[in-house]
Amino acid sequence: MAKANILEVILKTINDVKAKNAANPRQETAHPNVFDLIKDKIGGLDKKIQDNRAAKGKAPISILDLIKGQIEAARQHNQQDAKTPTADSNIFDSIIKKVEQKPKRTASAGVRRIIEEYNLDTSRIPTATMKQIQQQYDQELRALSQKYAQGLHDLIQRS
Hints:
Elements: H1 2-23, H2 32-43, H3 47-55, H4 63-80, H5 89-117, H6 127-158
Helix pairs in contact: 1-2, 1-5, 2-4, 4-5, 5-6
């Protein structure tokens, strides 16, 4: 269910980026095939990908990382496709930025929760330092999530 919500948000983002691109006079309007390609790549994400990774003995990967990988694959395909003009890199970057927002919000909320739970006064900590703390929290949280996903994956394989 969460995957469907994430995919819906990303598909809406693709449509939003398409509309902004068409409305922006300073940016060349991307060929409609570019957006169809991105949607096709992301639409192809399903349980089969995780199952194929498991069959090959690879670790599970988060849906957000899968989506980013598919967007990058669409970018490369677009660059190599002689029939479709190469889209401005901002098209792909805008979509990837939206994909990366959720983990950043989670990290920010996690750090805020810690600050509140421990009643910490962070007012004297520079903003740049707080951003570094959030980035580190995000990286460590992703690593922990990956570890648990691998553990669950291993249990599933054994049962």
